[in-house]
Structure formats: structure tokens, C-alpha cells
Specification:
The structure is a homodimer. By secondary structure, chain A is an alpha/beta fold. Chain A has helices at about 10-25, 35-40, 45-55, 65-75, 95-100, 135-145, 160-165, 195-230; strands at about 30, 60, 65, 85-90, 110-115, 125, 130-135, 150, 170-175, 190. The first copy, chain A, has a 7-stranded mixed sheet with strand order 6-7-5-4-8-9-10. The first copy, chain A, has a 3-stranded antiparallel sheet with strand order 1-3-2. Chain B binds a DNA duplex through helix 3 and strand 2.
Chain lengths: ~230, ~230
DNA sequence: TCGAATTTGTGATAATATTAACTAAATAAC
DNA sequence: GTTATTTAGTTAATATTATCACAAATTCGA
């Protein structure tokens, strides 16, 4: 087991492993080798073994990995057993969708409160989670451990609300706004879900494929023309 | 300008450049150097120049880059000028949030229709976008060019709906379900927005920092104890 | 107009990340 | 019980990515 800092790329793959293992476990599959897992995920067995080796030895030569044990290990590595408390800031459309649909507890997080400025929804509850006024934010934090804030306010407010969060001692933010809320120097831990970045990447890949197809078609066309001439 | 295949990492950075340039442009800043941009984004100037050099020469020695010209170039690289048509499949919470809040046209996409199976919402319109029945999906595709589908159905239906989409000739999917809808061999272009993966990464980084802090505290504690003893 | 100061684009280099090869342990077959 | 097979963990090799360094082009103040 290596003890050096684990790279970003590895961390980004761990949740995928976890999801796949969950799926296999649900299917009643109890044992898997690195090559089988690699086939399922489109990764090389080497990479999988190397990734796991960052955190320990979870397999058995000649056997492979026990699915449910490995699942537990990875879940633990990712911190799902730490019972982090989250608050949602901004109960607009996205925030609402998260409260309704996203099962925080599946991933070891407790969504303990939501906050908004809209008087019409303050005091209500969605899925057992109360919506409080931003005025009560600081007081709430004094009485509750909060490990992360889910930022889902309209983008115009992203920066000012981030200031409020940091002033109140929030150290980690799950950012759904389309704005970069922390500069390179910031001590905040920020995880961005920039929808537009994602869509633009997709747009690029579509364009790339279209261009390839167009080039291929043009080549065929030229060949055909040359043949007809002859 | 290099003509080799542009790497994934580069593509993932391009949208960030675009967003920052948009911001600078809105602030009336017309000129920027790679080092200034690097400072804003936490990247090295070299990397920025190298990234851009994959696509052409957009700068000017001794001057830097013209913000709005560069913005246009990058937008074009990402395909925002191609007028891609998108359809939304699944008008639940997330789908609804996208229709209400996400401005597809800002990124060069036209959301031309949504589809769902819920009779109560079929026939309605949100933000000018009509909601149709999945029964009409195939017919709609016959009459309209559709470049990508936004998949926002409950995860139980993710795979079966993906089958329907591919059967109907959809080649690219923006996937909001928490499920991997395409294996390694699939010809589909899939861009995933796995919320849970993102949250778990955040959870890891929080845990990592907590552990570091705990280790530091323990070290100080030991030092203090040793000193007291003496 | 000139010369110093900028700043790009790029080839060379350094650093990372991935893949392959190897070793040893465990299992399965006979 | 012995042997062939499987397969993890690890070290080495390869490939990819990021950074450095510098020539060439341009700007800008004097």
C-alpha cells in the first residue's frame, strides 16, 4: 500500500467503482476479478488494481475481490460512514429537485436543513427536511455540526451567498451554480457541478464526430468521382 | 498548431475558459495575457497557451489575447455555433428544473421538445417548450433533426429509455440519471452528470482534510504532553 | 524611431498516469 | 496431495500530460 497523496484521477474513479459494485451486489454477484470489473467499466485490470492499492489490499490472489467487502471498503474510503451533515442553500428549482429526488442518505450524508430567503416556503418541510430562513443560518450553525453546504441559488447570488457561508464557517461546498465561487487561493473545498461545462463538452464531442463523418463522406465522394471519370 | 487528437483534459478545460472569458467580456475587459488568465483560473500560463495551440493561434506576441475574439473562437471550437437541437426525455423534477432554469440557448443549443409518459403534463408547455408523449417520439424524430437527448428519467427506467433513444437514432445523450447507460463498446456519445459521484468525491476531500487536521492536532497534543512532562 | 519590456507559440524536458510484466499466493482440478 | 490455473500486488516500462525555456513578434514609453 502506497502512502503518498492519492491523485485526483484515482479519486474520481472510486465512486464509479462503488456504483458498479453496488449494482453487482444487488445482482447477487459475490466475487469479481480485476479483469471482469475492468471489462464492465472499460478500464484495464492493471489500473483497477493500482487504484485499489492506493488504499490497501482488498483482494485475494487466485480468487479476486469479494464484492460486498470491497464495496464496504470503498464506501469507507469515500467517507460515507462519517455521517456528514449537509445543508441546502437555495430552494429553487434545482434545490427542490435535490430535496425531492436525491437520496443524500444513500451516500452517507444527512440533509438536515434547507435555507432560503423566500417567505412563502420558509417554515415548510420537504421530505422531512425543514426550510429555514437565511436569517437563522448562523444560529443554526452554532447549534449543529454542518460539514458541507449545497449551493443551489441563482447564479447572480452565488458569490455573495458563498461569502455568507464562509463567514459562517462552512468549509466545503457542493456547487450547483454555474459560477466559479472560489479562486485558486481559496481554502474552501469546492465540488462543482457546472451543467454548462458538461453540455459544452458534449457539444464538442458531437461536433468532433460530425466532422469525422463529414470528412469520411467527402473522401468517399471524391473516390466515387474519380472512378466515374475513369 | 498541432493536428493530433485533442486530449480529454484539454476539452474539459475549454468550457471553463469560455465561462471566464464571458465574465471578463461582461466586465468590459478586452485584453488578457495567458498569465493573467492563469492567475484567475489557477492554471499555469504554459498550460493555457498549450491548450489553445491545439486549435490554432489566437494570440499576439507582446499583446496577449483579445477577450471577445478568443471567446468567439472557443465557443466555435465547442460547437456553440452549430445550432444543435436537443430533446428532453423525462419531465420529472430534474427535467423540470432544466426546462425552467437552464438556458440551453446560452450554449448554442435549442431545446425543441420534451417527452414524458405522464398524461397529466403531456400537451403542456414550459418556457415555450412543448411536452409530448413518448409515443410520438419516433414520429417527432422523423420530422426533426435531433442532435442530442437529455436523459432525466428515474433511474429504474434509465436503461430501457436509453434503448428507445438508440433505436430511434439518437447518437448523443446528456445523462442526468445515476446510472451508466452505455458500456465501453457503445458507439453512443454519453456525457454523464452523476450527482452521487460528485458528492462522493467531495465527501472524500472533506474526509482527507479532516484526517489531516486530526493528525496535526494529535501531533501538537503529543508535543504538549512531552513538554508538560519535562 | 529606438530599445526595453511583454508575451505568444512551440520544441524540449520533467512529471504523472497508465499499462505491462513479474512474483507469489490462493484456488481448482485431477 | 500434487499440479496447473487464476489472480492480486508490485515493480518496471511506456505513454501521456504539464511545465519550462527561448526565439520571434509586438507593444509602448522615451
Amino acid at each position: 500500500m502506497k502512502k503518498i497523496k492519492v491523485s485526483n484521477n484515482v479519486i474520481r474513479r472510486m465512486p464509479r467503482y462503488l456504483r458498479k459494485l453496488d449494482e453487482l451486489d444487488a445482482q447477487g454477484i459475490s466475487r469479481i476479478s480485476s479483469s471482469e470489473l475492468g471489462n464492465l467499466l472499460g478500464l484495464t485490470p492493471s489500473q483497477i488494481r493500482q487504484d485499489f492499492s492506493c488504499f490497501g489490499e482488498f483482494g485475494q490472489q487466485g480468487y479476486g475481490y469479494n464484492v460486498s467487502a470491497l464495496k464496504e471498503e470503498i464506501a469507507k474510503i469515500l467517507g460515507t460512514d462519517r455521517g456528514y451533515n449537509a445543508v441546502l442553500v437555495g430552494v429553487g428549482n434545482i434545490g427542490r429537485a435535490l430535496m425531492d429526488n436525491f437520496c443524500f442518505s444513500d451516500w452517507g450524508c444527512n440533509l438536515i436543513s434547507a435555507f432560503d430567503v423566500d417567505k412563502d416556503i420558509i417554515g415548510r418541510e420537504i421530505n422531512g427536511v425543514p426550510i429555514r430562513s437565511m436569517d437563522d443560518f448562523s444560529g443554526f450553525l452554532a447549534e449543529n455540526r454542518v460539514d458541507l453546504a449545497v449551493l443551489a441559488v441563482p447564479k447572480e447570488y452565488a458569490l455573495s451567498v458563498t461569502d455568507v457561508l464562509t463567514e459562517n464557517g462552512i468549509k466545503a461546498i457542493w456547487n450547483f451554480t454555474n459560477v466559479d465561487i472560489a479562486g485558486p487561493e481559496s481554502p474552501l473545498i469546492v465540488e462543482n457541478l457546472h451543467f454548462s461545462d458538461s453540455l459544452l463538452s458534449l457539444s464538442y464531442y458531437i461536433s468532433e464526430r460530425n466532422d469525422e463523418n463529414a470528412a469520411r463522406a467527402a473522401r468517399l465522394e471524391r473516390q466515387k468521382a474519380a472512378k466515374d471519370k475513369k
